[in-house]
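User: Sequence for TVP38/TMEM64 family membrane protein below. Tokens please.
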Amino acid sequence: MTGPVVARLWRPVLLVALVGVAVVVAVAVGVPSVGRLRDGLAGTGWAGPLLWAALYAGLSLTPVPVSLLAVLGGVLFGFGEGLPATLAGKFVGAAVGFALARRLGRDTVLRLVDRSGRGAERMAVVDDLVRRRGLLAVVGVRLAPVLPYSVLNLLWGLTAVRFRHYLLGTVLGVTPGTTALVAVGAFGTDPGSLPSLVSVVGLAVVGLTGAVLARRRLARSRADPPADD
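Assistant: Structure tokens for TVP38/TMEM64 family membrane protein:
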């Protein structure tokens, strides 16, 4: 009996352990200061944006606020280099978080909800929705996130959404807001400048658009009948 139990539990235990480590890292490191980052990246030259992308990807697996990291990317590298480096880190972090949850957690979730009729029914509704409209669902949630970035990455991995829909939806959903945040960091030293004003307006438009799309998506998902197997 010990062997089958270990075989069933090692994946969820490993996922929980990784999440615990991420929380500890977030508490211990927090959001790095501009001074510390500049000191650490000083003299790295062309490798600086690559190191920033790797650091961003790693921190995006923790509860550290990625919006603040995006602003820091603009402060450190300006808009031209900060945007692609920040987006690369964000996409890599999203893919890794999703893969970890899909590989280590989904089977366990399915086994757990299978023991509860109500839980299994709710999971089936979610899976049906993301199978039919996974891309639009991911875009809507990314535009109007209600949970930390790292948590959403893990939760999407627990659903049945296709990876290509998840990744494309993430690219489409986070790029507008991240672009505006990096611009805020890059041009924030001159609050009255046109790029700074455009960045602030862009953030407002992205937030409003995301809220409207999320509301419509929720209303439509309630109205749509589940797909037949």
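The chain has a mean pLDDT of 75.
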